[in-house]
Amino acid sequence: MPRIVPALLTLLLGVSTPALAAGVASPSVTLHGSHASMIRQNEIAKENDYTFLRTPAQIRHFVDEGYLVPVKTHGDLVVSSGVSFPYARPELRTFLERLAPEYHDGCGERLVVTSLTRPLSEQPWNSSPLSVHPAGMASDLRVSTSARCREWLASALLGLERRGVLDVTREHHPSHFHVALFPDRYMAYAAPMIAADSAAAAERARLAAEKEPKREDAPAPALASMLVAPAEAAPAGKEHGVGFAQVVAVLLVFGVAAAVHVKRRRD
Predict the structure, then answer these.
(1) pLDDT (tens digit, 9 = 90+) per residue, 154-179?
(2) How far, in Å, CA of 168 to CA of 143, rounded?
């Protein structure tokens, strides 16, 4: 197992997101987006039978039912305080939580999410009627001020778009990367890497358990009672010793008194 897991990880990491970032065509070729891409995103939402949520109340209901899951700030992932509804489809959360540490390793920054699920009643004025934000399968990512980070993220997202697992568009009002995840396709792509991560975590846990020192067994109950017995018996012995001394003292008193009495009679 220790030899198989690293080899498997090496094989799978060869197709991970950072590797995709190398050799990808200039982001300006496909990051502009198009009406056709919006239609494709909308059609995939319908293929997955996603509901386009109309109100905040509907979002809360979908969260309660488990159709949407919370996306929280932790580790290398940051959910901006301006995100009104920090919820997404489970597959999108998986994507963000896997992308964030790779982004950090790639350029040294944390991945910042600026938008997730939005109800139709709160879509911005310039949003497309085909937007899949109300379906919970889209996320907006902050565009870094670092050229290195911008290039890394653009290239990585384009690499994933080429694999057919998402659509990415660089939008400018406000500036962000809009990512629409194709849930079934992404999970099929990520499944081997997720399995490898789980296997590696299990192996680490096994090795850690082997290194833990074994605890010494506690004394058996019979032995424990034997160890305690002398202390418990001590008071009884002490009480017996005091009683014997008292008897001896009484006898001595009577002996002295008798001797005095006999002496007086002789005198």
Answers:
(1) 999 999 999 999 999 999 888 999 99
(2) 13
Instruction: Determine the Cα–Cα distance for residues 154 and 31; give it in Å rounded to an integer.
Output: 8
Closest-CA residue to 31 (of 195, 170, 161):
170
Do residues 109 and 149 lie in contact, with contact meaning Cβ atoms separated by under 8 Å?
yes
Please report the pLDDT score of residue 74 as a whole number.
Answer: 96
The type of residue at 143 is V
Strand residue runs (E) in the chain: 69-70, 77-79, 87-88, 111-115, 138-142, 166-172, 175-181
Pairwise CA distance, residues 162 & 213, whole Å: 50
Give the C-alpha distances (Å, rounded to integers) separating 120 from 56, 57, 112. Answer: 9, 12, 23
Tokens of 182: 């194709």
Q: What is the 3-state secondary structure (H, E, C) of 215-241?
A: CCCCCCHHHHHHHHHHHHHHHHHHHHH
Query: How far apart, in whole angstroms, are the C-alpha atoms of residue 198 and residue 78?
Result: 24
CB 187 within 8 A of CB 91: yes
Q: Is 74 helix (H, G, I), strand (E, B) or coil?
A: strand
For residue 80, the SS3 value is coil
Mean pLDDT of the chain: 80
3-state secondary structure string across 11-62: HHHCCCHHHHCCCCCCHHHCCCCCHHHHHHHHHHHHHCCCCCCCCHHHHHHH
DSSP 94: H
Count, residues in the chain: 267
Query: Any idea which residue has 């305690």 for tokens?
Result: 228
- pLDDT tens, residue by residue, 195-227: 999 999 999 999 999 888 766 655 555 544 444
Query: H-type helices in 108-220, by residue range?
Result: 147-162, 183-211
Do the Cβ atoms of 107 and 149 come closer than 8 Å? Answer: yes
For 50, the 3-state DSSP assignment is coil
